[in-house]
Specification:
With 326 residues, the protein is of the alpha/beta class. The protein has a single domain, classed as NADP-dependent oxidoreductase domain (TIM Barrel). The protein is built from 11 helices and 10 strands. The strands form 2 sheets. The chain has an 8-stranded parallel β-sheet, with helices on one face. β1 and β2 form a beta hairpin. α4 packs across α5. The longest helix has 15 residues. The protein is globular. The chain starts with a strand and ends in an 11-residue tail after the last helix.
Length: 326
């Protein structure tokens, strides 16, 4: 395993982060794993040297946090041996106010997350999306309160426009509050719009990039087909996937498959290796439901791509509509 710092912060993480969204309540999604099914995957990740684990309160309405907390306590002898992140924004109930990034919701949500996780702090607390209804000053002050209370060591953001991220950072700096050290965004071989503004902004500001869905929900592993459908449980039961890729993306898949075949590696390893080589990328957040998926991810750290191979992987890309805070 390789390790690096999150941007210019002192937070050190493995170069792969394990996404815990797939672990929780199997009744919510056919491809989710319950506690017992997830245990060998998390144990193997720990054995492989993965120290970064990412979840969110909204994943299976808190069940993912409960499973995450228990499995990490089993897999590690000390709380200081792993880096734990969770997120806040989405509603956890139908109650008025139980959503967004208001001070009320943030302070209540961090306490609820810590109870479910079974810990007194998270290492990284993300805002899951941008809140159009709450002043950014209120949000950043509340996050600063969370850090100063010792309930989170650092704060990060996910999926917003670059101008929104810059505004939040400016507000925090102007008031002496803690700034975001991490951006968890939508970025992979088949979606590269973050290269326009967000990645240059993060590089300039010393913010670490931890992309989610680095294999495009299975698209870059070859489990999806042109015109819809797929060969795995998730690819056949993931309605959001159809809105995140187009037929043109399969030209990228074709190029990926060809390069992977030539160098004797699975497409997943090559796609992750390309992403790991992008400027500013700290650790892709990989979601796995089988031990072999984890082995592919770890093996990608050993794949070295040449300039010509990267050019071929990138040549088929067609620009997309920018995915912002929604």
């Amino acid at each position: 395993m390789q390790y690096t710092h999150v941007g210019r912060s002192g937070l050190e993480v493995s170069r792969l982060a394990l996404g815990m969204m797939s672990f929780g309540d199997r009744s919510q999604r056919a491809w989710h794993l319950d506690l017992d099914q997830a245990r060998p995957v998390v144990r193997r990740a720990a054995e492989a040297g993965v120290t970064a684990y990412d979840t969110a309160d909204v994943y299976d309405r808190g069940v993912s946090e409960e499973v995450t907390g228990r499995l990490l306590r089993e897999a590690f002898s000390s709380r200081e041996d792993y880096v734990l992140s969770t997120k806040v924004y989405y509603p956890m109930s139908e109650a008025p106010g139980d959503r967004g990034l208001s001070r009320r919701h943030i302070l209540a949500s961090i306490d609820a997350s810590l109870r479910r996780l079974g810990t007194d702090h998270v290492d990284l607390y993300y805002v899951h999306r941008w809140d159009h209804d709450t002043p950014v000053e209120e949000t950043m002050e509340a996050l600063d309160t969370v850090v100063r209370a010792g309930k989170a060591r650092y704060v990060g953001a996910s999926s917003m426009y670059a101008w929104q991220f810059a505004k939040a950072q400016h507000v925090a700096e102007r008031n002496g509050w803690h700034r975001f050290v991490a951006m968890q965004n939508h970025y992979h071989l088949a979606y590269r719009e973050e290269e326009r503004e967000m990645l240059p902004l993060c590089l300039d500001q010393g913010v670490g990039v931890l992309p989610y869905s680095p294999l495009a929900r299975g698209l870059l592993t070859g489990t999806r087909t042109r015109g819809g459908g797929g060969s795995t449980t998730r690819s056949g039961n993931d309605p959001a996937a159809g809105t995140l890729c187009s037929d043109a993306d399969f030209d990228v898949v074709d190029a990926l498959t060809e390069v992977a075949r030539e160098i004797g590696r699975p497409p997943a390893q090559v796609a992750l290796a390309w992403l790991l080589g992008r400027p500013g990328v700290v650790a892709p957040v990989v979601g796995v439901t089988k031990p072999r998926h984890l082995e592919d991810a770890v093996s990608s750290l050993d794949v070295v791509l040449g300039d010509e191979e990267c050019e071929r992987l990138e040549a088929a890309y067609v620009p997309h509509t920018v995915v912002g805070p929604e």
